[in-house]
TrEMBL record:
InterPro entries hit by this protein: CoA-transferase_III, CoA-Trfase_fam_III, CoA-Trfase_III_dom_1_sf
GO molecular function: catalytic activity
Protein name per its UniProtKB record: Unannotated protein
Length: 356
């Protein structure tokens, strides 16, 4: 993408920072910033539907007082439109024209709040003071993550041969585990036997690349025996990567800090849309809408926003997360790391230089 997209240039610059940190930590390079940000789909100037995401499921729409991103990637999401705004789908397709008309009459805060209460990935393009960041204590864009020491360090901690349990899905978490695999870690990708990684149904080439040389394990998490199996696996991990909203782990009775405290040197990485703490901890989000929530968009002369890249918050976060984990392991571990897609996108949007 050319300099006609300042947002893309900022995203690539942020990615290159993470990659430079990888080199300093001894992680093997797996590509340049622009290449890794466009891994799923080549980013070209021929893409002209700039208010429609590359995947086609997310759109930037006007509200009565601003802009929001509406992301409806699942059939279940579409079925919630009547409850959300009284909009009905037609022939299994979203009635985008009707949805656009309804949203234009409603304030952004109401649109986002009501959508998120139903579990829809709706986000607002930020405008003014950012209460979410203040409440989470991550107001410094140079450090868009929260790291807490909750366990003990291990002097011989290393990524080479480290046991990584990856519970994440889609793009951000798997990209992080892919980089750790290249560093010599032994990654086990764990999926629910009833709800496997949805990216299996998407770009299979990307899925295979992200999970190359990894072990796969399917566990029936809806059964007590499956929960026990998962807990035992986590307690033997050197690194855990997960992307569940807090209430999902709560339902399983799994507390990250307790897992880390049981075994010296453990690192627990949580990648979610809005973070594990703060007022939006249970909000839903994916790469495209989270980028909008972080302000990582292009604006034309009249203030109309456009998407930057393809679900750009995902690969940005995956690249940064790998560096954070490698750094934490090198320091002996014993920590939980809370990374939010939305805050990483915000840091990129501000052109921040990460402080390690």
């Amino acid at each position: 993408m050319s300099s006609a997209s300042p947002g893309w240039d900022l995203a690539v610059g942020f990615a290159e920072q993470a990659i430079a940190r990888h080199a300093g930590l001894g992680l093997r390079p797996i590509g340049a910033g622009a290449e890794l940000l466009s891994q799923r789909s080549l980013f070209t100037d021929s893409w002209t539907r700039r208010q429609v995401s590359m995947g086609g499921h997310c759109r930037l729409l006007r509200t009565a007082d601003g802009w929001c991103a509406v992301h409806l990637p699942r059939r279940d999401d579409v079925e919630l439109l009547p409850a959300w705004l009284g909009v009905h789908d037609s022939a299994d397709e979203v009635a985008w024209e009707e949805l656009t008309e309804v949203l234009s009459l409603r304030p952004t805060s109401e649109v986002v709040r009501s959508g998120q209460e139903l579990g829809l990935a709706i986000s607002a393009l930020p405008n003014g003071e950012d209460e979410q960041l203040r409440d989470r204590g991550t107001t410094n864009p140079a450090r868009p993550w929260i790291q807490r020491r909750v366990g003990t360090r291990r002097s011989d901690a290393s990524l080479d041969g480290a046991r990584v349990v990856d519970l994440s899905s889609l793009w951000a978490g798997p990209l992080c585990s892919r980089i750790l695999t290249e560093a010599g870690a032994k990654v086990v990708k764990v999926e629910s036997s009833t709800r496997p990684d949805a990216s299996r149904d998407g770009d299979r080439a990307l899925f295979d690349w992200l999970h190359a040389d990894q072990e796969f394990l399917s566990i029936p998490l809806e059964e007590p025996s499956g929960v026990d199996e998962l807990a035992a696996l986590l307690e033997q991990a050197d690194v855990v990567i997960e992307g569940s909203r807090p209430r999902a782990l709560d339902r399983l009775g799994i507390v990250p800090a307790e897992i880390v405290a049981k075994r010296s040197g453990t690192v627990w990485l949580s990648i979610t849309a809005y973070g594990r703490c703060g007022p939006w901890r249970d909000w839903v989000g994916f790469g495209d809408d989270a980028a909008v929530a972080g302000g990582l968009v292009d604006l034309d002369a009249s203030g109309v926003p456009s998407f930057v890249g393809d679900a750009v918050a995902d690969p940005l976060t995956g690249l940064l997360a790998a560096a954070i984990v490698a750094d934490a392991v090198g320091r002996g571990g014993g920590v939980t790391i809370d990374v939010a897609l939305r805050e990483v996108a915000r840091s990129a949007a501000t052109g921040a230089r990460v402080v390690w």
